[in-house]
Amino acid sequence: MAIFDGKGLMFEESDWFIVNFLRMLWNYGFNSIRMHMWVEGILDKFMRIYQYQQFGYSFSSVEGLLHATGGDEFLALLNQTLEEAMLAQGFSQAFINEIATPISRASYLQSVRLHAFVGSVALSCADSGLWAVDGGNKRVCSGLLYHSKAELIPARVTNIAIKTRPSKSGNIAHLYEVNYVGDSGPAHSLYDIVVLATPLHQGLSDISFSGFSPSLPSHFPGAYHQIVTTLVLGRLNVSFLDARRDPSQFFVSDILMMENENLGIASLNSLDPVHITPGYSRPPASQTAVWKIYSTEPVTEEQLRMLFVSRERVVVKSWLACPSYRAPERQAPSFILHHNLYYLSPIEWAASSMEMSALSARNIALLASHRWHGDASKVDQEDLHARLRGEL
Q: How far is the C-alpha of 152 from the C-alpha of 272, rounded, in Å?
């Protein structure tokens, strides 16, 4: 990893741990060690959610889930920026500007002015021990679908309508009519329980709701943040990053950018193949490779000429990747939209990642099961950490 300030590489990792430690110590004192300990402390508390879910506990709101894992400390992290939280912890402004900001921008393309909880998640990505799936992370989704033995209907949902009918117990049962459009045209199906796993925000969903009282909004407040991913098959212009470096000796794979209006990009990463063959090693920058550029706006032809000495192919994908975070963060919607209509995406307003969505999905599965069977003893319970520790 290296950090580029617009003029040159102001920091570059070595293959040797002791060299990296001494470089960070010389430039920033013990700030890097303290950042690791601070982030690990936050994540260790949040990891309690796995134990809670193992014992079947679930939560109806993001705030309830966070409070159960980290108490008032976690709710406070939603109400202050990452910069404010780090300054309060004693981190230097130079370390925040030169290390924390590039890491935050590389993760979410947002500066240290996002809220501190998602900021701590971003900082955790700078640590080692991150994993990818051989063949591509998309295999997680296809594998889960296969093992669940679920029936997949490839169609676009347009409307969800509430239907009622008397039950055998004399109460009113609620059913949900899901209307959708597939290859064979419009159709609909009735369900007892529905989970919405797409954000109900402008530009991400056009699902409407009918017959609900009170009515459900088709779009919740708040905006999602645009990320433009540009994949370039080509040779990197190493002289732009470091005029003295021989490209054959340049093995940096992750280049994080400091906040600089003239750069216009957040990070530049060398991508490995989705299938790693035995003996594979990353090529030096003198060879053609696939590079990924993160930016909030499309990369210009001028920027591409500046970054690469040659290009064989360029692919651009623009997408609304994650919420536009702020502090204090607005209260996230409930996981429960109606009696048995559930919503997965509120967790993204705490932090957006594959793991967070998986945790939200398991929480909803537990929540739906408990509420369907009338078991309130494992929903929105407090002091679980002390209770489970006592039981064990």
A: 31
